[in-house]
Design goal:
CATH architecture of chain B: Alpha-Beta Barrel
Number of strands of chain A: 3
Strand content of chain B: 15-25%
CATH class of chain B: Alpha Beta
Oligomer: heterodimer
Strand content of chain A: 5-15%
CATH topology of chain B: TIM Barrel
Number of helices of chain B: 9
CATH superfamily of chain B: Divalent-metal-dependent TIM barrel enzymes
Radius of gyration of chain A: 21 Å
Strand order of the largest sheet of chain B: 7-4-3-2-1-12-9-8
């Protein structure tokens, strides 16, 4: 799995400004790769980090940092799960948890490609697993698109972190305005869906969505429907309603 | 001569989260009604709009003074406070008739997205000065005093102590301070210092509000205190409360922040514990709804 580029951390270590030191702190809290780069640089800081940053980072208790990072990764996992429980019904936690950990230790975590944190995670997971399992990649794309069009995430703390740190849900995407989509549509043009504000689609060899538009609840072949060639369509409607459908492509032009 | 009959005086208030209004041991309006006459005020976070604030006033606060706890305006964020959010939330403060606004000083976004668990700032002079600039910007546009709150710390990084950092912030911004005694305890646990020493290092003369809440020390790592609000208040935090009340001459309000994991009996027990402590030391709150609001920039 792709981990955080060490170059970003190394560049931050050389910068002598408040923003860089704050960003380093945040990266250390989520990224083991960053923590390793910093710990290594602290052994011989000359030329590898600016003096002020070395002085600040030398106050870190790295054992406590590791404990903190583990706790934050558990909380990130739970936060994503609470945002979209059906994904955890469909894909086993043993598969998702390492992806969440890799996500937190990747450049993708710091780049806002998705509208929500959950969509951003799905984008990362989709791209990461695509080489090993197209089915899994398609499942992450489906859930990511549903999240893209759904209501804003609730920003409430998991149960074992400071309960003061609550917030207000972010603004939802303005569905009446066209927005660049980070998802690969596979060259398919989405069909016209009456009354839909936005529509996205992709090609899949699995049906994924049943006749009633329900999302898959497991990766078992029975739950995924007949294999074939499908255009998976996700549409957003007024009132933040989202629906999904699988259209057979055989006999149709892509 | 007949003895004058006095209305009961509430000694403490509740700290509530609007997102959890249906998840406390009782629904928020029922909970407030149950403690009617024993509450001095309410503090509420996560009110997203003036309409929600009006519902909160109508159903929960009534005539009680209200502190508006802000949700992630974040004067410590690298880019400074979210002034768009802050300005929008002024309408919420208006409906509440807020006595003041407050927020934990920390980083509320990790990467590009808001996350539900923040990070205390680097305890550095340059960050303290940045927070001062942010608070000043907020003060310029708001009709309500902004009171920074000491954050929960499961990890402390930087060359300043918590006390040095908040002396610099409150002196620089010339503002009051919200002292969360559970957060003070979390810092003491994280840096392995006696909690009484940490408390005494803070600018207690600037404290106008104290927060107290339940939590516990991580059983697997003993310098990590989890400020859950959903457990009993730790005896050390009660000690800190007593000490803080005695040494904060401008203290106006004590707020018991409650979480959704508390049972009704636990809540009742800790409410009474705090109430009894305040009664024993003879402390009374002095918090009331502002009679007239200052114009922007003079709060």
């Amino acid at each position: 799995m792709r981990t955080l580029s060490s170059g970003v951390t190394q560049a931050l270590l050389l910068r002598d400004d408040r923003e860089a030191r704050t960003e380093l702190l945040l990266r250390l809290l989520y990224s083991k790769s960053s923590a390793d780069v910093v710990a290594d640089a602290l052994k011989d800081p000359s030329g590898r980090m600016c003096e002020a940053t070395a002085s600040v980072l030398s106050t870190i208790d790295f054992h406590a940092l590791e404990v903190e990072r583990s706790a934050r990764l558990r909380n990130l996992n739970r936060h994503l799960q609470r945002t979209c429980p059906p994904l955890w019904d469909c894909v086993e936690a043993e598969t998702i948890t390492p992806l969440v950990e890799a996500y937190a230790d990747s450049d993708a975590f710091w780049q806002s490609a998705g509208r929500t944190l959950f969509e951003n995670f799905c984008l990362f997971a989709h791209r990461t697993v695509a080489g090993q399992s197209q089915l899994l990649a398609d499942v992450f794309q489906l859930f990511g698109l549903v999240s893209r069009f759904s209501a804003p995430e609730l920003i409430a703390p998991p149960e074992d972190v400071c309960a003061c740190t609550t917030g207000i849900p972010g603004e939802g995407m303005d569905l009446a305005k066209a927005a660049f989509s980070p998802w690969d549509d596979g060259g398919l043009i989405p069909p016209h869906v009456p009354d839909a504000l936005q529509t996205e689609s992709f090609r899949s060899a699995w049906r994924l969505v049943d006749e009633r538009g329900r999302l898959p609840r497991s990766l078992d072949p029975d739950a995924l429907g007949d294999p074939g060639d499908y255009q998976i369509v996700v549409a957003a409607f007024p009132g933040r309603k989202v629906s999904a459908a699988a259209l057979p492509l055989s006999g149709r032009c892509a | 001569m007949t003895k004058e009959k006095k209305d009961p005086v509430g000694l403490l208030g509740f700290g509530l989260d609007w997102q959890y209004r249906d998840s406390y041991p009782q629904k928020m309006p029922d909970l407030c009604a149950r403690y009617a006459g024993r509450l001095s005020h309410l503090s509420c976070v996560s009110l997203p709009s003036a309409a929600d604030a009006q519902t909160f006033v109508d159903e929960c606060a009534g005539d009680l003074p209200v502190v508006h706890h802000l949700p992630g305006v974040a004067p410590a964020a690298p880019g400074g406070p979210n002034m768009e959010l802050f300005t929008r939330l002024e309408a919420v403060s208006d409906v509440l008739g807020a006595v003041w606004t407050c927020e934990d000083i920390g980083l509320w976004s990790i990467g590009p997205y808001p996350l539900p668990y923040f990070t205390p700032p680097l305890f550095e002079r340059e960050i303290a000065d940045h927070v001062v600039d942010g608070i000043r910007r907020m003060q310029e546009v708001s009709r309500y005093p902004f009171v920074p709150e000491i954050p929960s710390c499961t990890l402390a990084v930087g060359r300043m102590s918590l006390g040095e950092f908040f002396h610099r912030v409150t002196d620089g911004a010339d503002c009051d301070l919200l002292l969360d005694v559970a957060h003070v305890f979390s810092y003491a646990v994280a840096v392995r210092q006696p909690y009484e020493d940490v408390l005494r290092s803070l600018p207690l003369d600037r404290v106008v509000e104290i927060h107290v809440a339940g939590g516990y020390i991580d059983p697997t790592f003993d310098n990590r205190y989890l400020d859950t609000h959903s457990h009993a208040v730790t005896p050390a935090v009660i000690d800190l409360l007593q000490e803080a009340v005695a040494h904060a001459p401008r203290l106006r309000a004590v707020t018991y922040e409650i979480g959704v994991g508390l049972g009704a009996d636990e809540l009742d027990s800790d409410f009474e514990r705090i109430e009894n402590l305040l009664a024993e030391v003879g402390w009374t709150p002095s918090i009331s709804r502002p009679s007239g609001l200052a114009t922007a920039g003079t709060a």
